[in-house]
Amino acid sequence: MSAELQAWPLWLTSPLALLGAGLLLAQVLGLLLAARGLPRLYGAVASGLLLGVSGAGLIDAAVATQFQELFNAATALVLFEVGRKMDLAWLWRSRRQGASLLLACLLRGTVVWALLAACGLRAGEAGFMAAILSASSPIIHSSMVADARASGVTVFAGANLVGLGNVLALLALAPSIAWLRTQVDTETAGYGAELVKQLGRLAWGAAIALLCYGLYALATRLSRARAHLRPGMLLAALLMDLGLCSVSAASALLSLLLMGVLLRNAEKRDNVFQAELRTGQDIGYALLFMLSASLVQVEQLWHWQTLLVALTVFAARVAVTRLALAPATAWGRRKKPALALSMYSLVSFGSLMVDNSMAGYPGLSEPAQQIMAALLALNVLLAPGLTWYGLHLAGENHEEELHE
Q: Mainly resides where (predicted)?
């Protein structure tokens, strides 16, 4: 037997081979689940759990870090799509509906802050966590909408609520991160200076979005590119946006959302970006789900006190979302609970930051870290299914079209 054959297990040390094996397993498991009427992307969750830190341990934080840029690129496409689906004119014209969505975001943050403070967390760290938990995951919502081939008023309202919630969460994070950093880093110049730094990240993100969108608009007009040729140019502009945000520590989430908002609300020409990248998006969703699940620490769910707090937070978020939708008149009695349930998911700090320039949870105590770990574990395990069920409850899923 040759030395090469004797050393065949060395493929386990190749991050790229592990990633490919994980994606292949995710696709196989996903198709088996879809054949039984279950969300296909749970195959990626199962693959991540089997290969990740709670399973075989082949994919851990060190391996995931090597694919940070790939993770960022996949996240960038999702965030751009979220921004592209935000209809600012509708949010303003609808008045009562738009106000209900805004109220849902504010109530979620307020109630979560009160719950966490009641559990003994410091006001500052409770505020930091509440800012994150006021938003829903754009990755989970977008992927479940794509998985269920859903469309309708609930999907439309949900997309606007996801975008609005992420922007508000990012704005709320600026003062909370500044406060936490002044508590744990004695070398900071003070709260005011740190707040200006955080607000500067947001301003630079917005400026980069305007620059990259302007270059995209100029290039497509100078070249007179037709609709079917513009997706490639748009993708190039998105990569420029993400790269500039990465090297300047600007807010990539705000920048990429703004790119989508500009395409939806400022661009008057037809675009076929969604149709051209459907296969790439499906692979991107599987990659994001698998990497997220691979880092889930299931053992965090064995501590019943932490699990109880996490479940209470999730239940409270759904309940106050439903309460905030009560004044709205555009959605029926069945649509409102369906919309609230489809907003069950929470966004992670890593997705809000997009890049790894602000990794981790700065200044959180050990109990707060445990609660966040339990929340993220439940988010990966339960949120996709409940979001998918909410779309079914609203009657806006169209998976049967796949079999026609």
A: membrane
Amino acid at 175: P
Domains of the chain, start order: 68-283+299-394 (1.20.1530.20)
CB 107 within 8 A of CB 324: yes
CB 139 within 8 A of CB 281: no
Q: How far apart are CA 74 and CA 76, in angstroms?
A: 5
Distance linking the first and last C-alpha atoms of the chain: 52
CA distance 384 to 137: 10
Which amino acid is located at 298 in the chain?
A: V
Residue 214's pLDDT is 86
* Residue that the structure tokens 């990497």 belong to: 291
Structure-block tokens of residue 323: 């309460």
Residue 59's identity, in one-letter code, is: I
Rounded CA separation 297/304 (Å) = 15
Residues 6 or more apart in contact with residue 232 via CB below 8 angstroms: none
**Averaged over 258-266, what is the pLDDT?**
80
398: phi then psi, degrees, rounded to nearest 5: -135, 40
312 — pLDDT class (breaks 50, 70, 90): very high
Predicted confidence at residue 92, as pLDDT, reads 83
Do residues 233 and 193 touch, judged by C-beta distance below 8 A?
Answer: no
- Which amino acid would we find at residue 261? V
Q: How many CA atoms lie within 13 A of 197 on its CB side?
A: 16
pLDDT in tens, 318-373: 999 999 888 887 777 788 888 888 888 888 765 555 544 334 555 678 888 888 88
- pTM of the shown model: 0.81
Burial class (CB within 10 angstroms; exposed 0-12, middle 13-18, buried 19+) of 222: exposed
Q: What is the pLDDT of residues 277-299, one digit of tens each?
A: 555 666 777 878 887 788 777 77
Q: How buried is residue 190: exposed, middle or buried, by Cβ count under 10 Å (0-12/13-18/19+)?
A: exposed
How far apart are the C-alpha atoms of 158 and 146, rounded to whole Å?
13
Which amino acid type is present at position 155?
Answer: V
Nearest by Cα to 59 from 360, 383, 289: 289
Q: What is the rounded CA–CA span in Å between residue 403 and residue 390?
A: 22
* Nearest-angstrom CA–CA distance, 47 and 24: 9
